[in-house]
Amino acid sequence: MITQLTIITGASRGMGLTMAQQLIGARHKLLCISRGSSDALAQAADQAGADLTQWQADLADATPVAARLGQWLANQSAPEISSVTLVNNAGVIPPIVPLYAADPQELVRALRVGLEAPLVMTAAFLAATRAWTAKRRVLNISSGLGRHPMASQSAYCAAKAGLDHFTRCLAQDEARQANGARVCALAPGVIDTDMQQQLRNAHPLDFPDQASFAKLKQTGQLTSAQDAAARVLAYLNRTDFGSQPVADVRD
Predict the structure, then answer these.
(1) Does the pLDDT of residue 1 top 70, yes or no?
(2) Is the pTM higher than 0.85?
(3) SS3 99
(4) Is there a contact between 209 and 167 (Cβ–Cβ < 8 Å)?
(5) CB of 84 closer than 8 Å to CB of 139
(6) Are 145 and 156 in contact (CB under 8 A)?
(7) Average pLDDT for residues 219-243, to the nearest whole number?
(8) Using a CB cutoff of 8 Å and minimum separation of 24, what contacts does 70-74 make?
(9) CA 210, 235, 159, 147: dihedral to nearest 10 degrees?
(10) Which alpha helices (DSSP H) does the chain contain, by range?
(11) What is the separation, in whole angstroms, between the first and last Cα of the chain?
(12) Which domains, and CATH codes, for the chain?
């Protein structure tokens, strides 16, 4: 019998991949949605005899992916599932330049993946599981940059700030529902991923904080993807998860 079902976006690399790897196990079903699939994740699932599904999809066009998710959830055996969780992890940092120099298409993509996709995926998730008796949770992976402005980061900061406020609104919606979902926009800390490398490699004239991000790497202040994933999953499993709709894993 399946007891836990988890859906993770952006699970083919970085912290999303590591979260998926750490969730692989008996009585846990995983659906991972990313632009690419992960051979390492598939191999780990095969070795563990785990139930893993990977979809290759571009969340810059999330509407058809959300429709597919709703149908997929409708086909699950809800009575066998004790908890169902959506983790909106996918995000994009466009080229790090001041807004006047930004490519409009890159800005649109960052906002669609970082904000529009979580909205429509969450809507589909909640609609499809509304009648389920399972514990329902939505974890939106946020960022300190959604709470603190930074030059040359307009699109990413805006997406994360929007994600935080959308989560606040969603928490109020779900509090009024029978078996309403517990929801949280969680900042996971500063993690040693490709995104951090992108920030370190930005031109200092375009990105005034470039030296600060380079120093984080040089002084060993970055959290590994493995440690960050473990801390996020531990937060997700706290009995008070959702009591704060916007939180930081370090609090």
Answers:
(1) no
(2) yes
(3) helix
(4) no
(5) no
(6) yes
(7) 89
(8) 70/124, 70/125, 70/127, 70/128, 72/31, 73/124, 73/125, 73/128, 73/129, 74/128
(9) -60
(10) 14-23, 39-48, 62-74, 104-111, 117-128, 154-175, 194-200, 210-218, 225-236
(11) 35
(12) 4-190+224-248 (3.40.50.720)
* CA distances (Å), origin 120, targets 54, 66, 178, 208, 228: 19, 6, 21, 34, 26
Unique residue bearing structure tokens 């030059």: 151
Contacts of residues 36-43 at CB distance under 8 Å and 24 or more positions apart, as own/partner, are 36/12, 37/12, 38/11, 38/12, 38/13, 41/11, 41/12, 41/17
Q: Go through the chain and tell me how many residues it has.
A: 251
Lookup: tokens for 178? 């029978």
Residue indicated by tokens 């600060």 = 212
Would you say residue 54 has pLDDT above 90?
Answer: yes
What's the token pair of residue 14?
A: 């970085």
